[in-house]
Amino acid sequence: MSLQYDYEHPGFQLYEELEVSPRASDPVIRAAYGRLMRTHASDRARCARLQTAFDILSNPTARRAYDAQGEEIIASAN
Fold first, then answer.
1. CA 48 to CA 53: how far, in whole Å?
2. Residue 28, C-beta contacts closer than 8 angstroms, at least 6 positions apart
C-alpha cells in the first residue's frame, strides 16, 4: 500500500514508510509500526527502515525536527 498526498511535506518519506498520514497520532504510528514489523519480519532492510521511521516519529522532539528539516535530520545524524 503506497500512500499519496497532494501537498509537499518536508518529512514525507518516513510517514510513507510507516504508511501513515503526517497528521497521524502516536497510537496510530505505534500500531502501524507493529503491523508492518510483523508483516515484513523476514525483510531485514525493510525492518531497519521501519525502525528508523518509528524511532524518529515516535519521539515528539525528533518528529518536530524531522517535520521542520525533513531528510536532512537523518543525514546529519549519520
1. 9
2. 20
Q: How far apart are CA 48 and CA 61, in angstroms?
A: 21
Residues 39 and 33 sit within 8 Å (Cβ to Cβ): no
Q: What is the pLDDT along the chain (78 residues), one digit of tens a residue?
A: 444 443 444 457 899 999 999 999 999 999 999 999 999 999 999 999 999 999 999 999 999 988 888 777 676 665
Q: Residues 1, 40: contact at Cβ < 8 Å?
A: no
Q: Whole-angstrom Cα distance, residue 54 to residue 8?
A: 21
